[in-house]
Write the structure tokens for this entry.
Amino acid sequence: MNGCEGYNAIAKVYDKLNAEIDYSAWADFIETCFQNFLPSRPELVLDLACGTGSMTLELDRRGYDMIGVDGSADMLAQAYERAEGNPDILWLKQDMREFELYGTVGAVTCCLDSLNYLLTPADLEKTFSLVHNYLDPDGLFLFDMNTPYKFQQIYGNNAYILEDELVWDEGTDTEERAAVYCGWQNDYHPDTGICDFDLSIFEELPNGTYRRSDEHQQERCYSMDEIKKALANANLEFLGVWSDRHFSIPGDTAERWYFAARAKK
Ligand SMILES: C[S@@+](CC[C@H](N)C(=O)[O-])C[C@H]1O[C@@H](n2cnc3c(N)ncnc32)[C@H](O)[C@@H]1O
């Protein structure tokens, strides 16, 4: 399965379901990494697996020239709509395992466990090699991945319900609820490291009925050794890994690893 195949129906409600993610704080972390690991502020930044463009748009607002690459046409359609015709962002529908750019960039970001959607170490390494190819010498690669702890203890075989939040409508001064619920069933297979996610999305329509759409997604669990090996094989120098955006050292119960790597010349 290709990682972007499970991003069709969910694209329209993706931002509602992820409304609690603070992309501004995340961009602060990214800019701190730029300051810590780059000789100067990068001009051109690639946001790989950009989805609906939350980070792409945030970095655009901060003055970077942005390229957003994603394999899902539906996710990119949302990103394009949110960008309101902003001509400064280049959106490309490409599979990250074989993406192509016109030239190199100063930094690459890849947020919200998008790399876990690559289901084999070979695909991870292929993607890392392309990141290396399209980074300036000494350019910076910032990405995060879900940890084995998260796959084993949090995802496991659990089921969740996600729902959007109430929205205040300024026009009518009332609480508007265009409700979206997402039932999420996980099935983690420790032998292969693959986790199957079965999502059922219920979106409220203006007449009060609900439209149901189903998606199937898969992520793969990677060990720290596998990630570091893939980086080394792609000629990317590992600079550090943290468990949050305050540069904390990861413990055994970290759910997300934030990595920084540099393109060796
Ligand atoms: C969890 S979403 C994260 C999106 C975005 N980075 C964010 O922070 O909201 C994962 C994204 O990875 C994309 N994706 C998964 N596999 C991909 C692949 N092989 N090539 C390109 N994009 C892929 C999906 O289409 C989806 O938009």
In short: The pocket of S-adenosylmethionine is lined by residues 2-4, 7, 49-51, 54-55, 70-72, 75, 95-97, 111-114, 117 (CB under 6 Å). The chain has two domains: 3-147+222-263, 151-219. The first strand starts at residue 44 and ends at 48. The radius of gyration is 19 Å.
